[in-house]
Write a structure and sequence with these properties.
Structural class: mainly alpha
Number of helices: 5
Strand content: under 5%
Distance between the termini: 51 Å
Number of domains: 1
Number of strands: 0
Length: about 90
């Protein structure tokens, strides 16, 4: 087993797995920040909107965070933004 762990093949797979795990962790953290910001600004976010947000790409999440800081005054503003993002 020690020989396997020291092999370049094993090390490469381990490295890829760690990178994927780190990326997923960062995305989850980013999602939590966005949801917290939206909740503080707009109140409780309905399930349908949360599901739409969870389906956004990483770049869209960045855009949503920026928009949530400056443009959203109501849940309708969020709904409109999500509708436009899904086009």
């Amino acid at each position: 087993m020690v020989v396997l762990r020291e092999s370049p093949w094993y090390q490469e797979i381990l490295k890829e797995g760690l990178q994927q795990g780190l990326q997923q962790g960062l995305q989850q953290g980013q999602m939590q920040i966005v949801m917290r910001q939206l909740s503080r600004r707009l109140g409780e976010i309905p399930l349908d909107l949360r599901q739409q947000i969870e389906g956004l790409s990483e770049a869209e999440i960045d855009e949503l965070l920026e928009a949530s800081l400056t443009r959203f005054e109501s849940l309708q503003d969020l709904r409109t933004w999500l509708t436009q993002a899904n086009r």
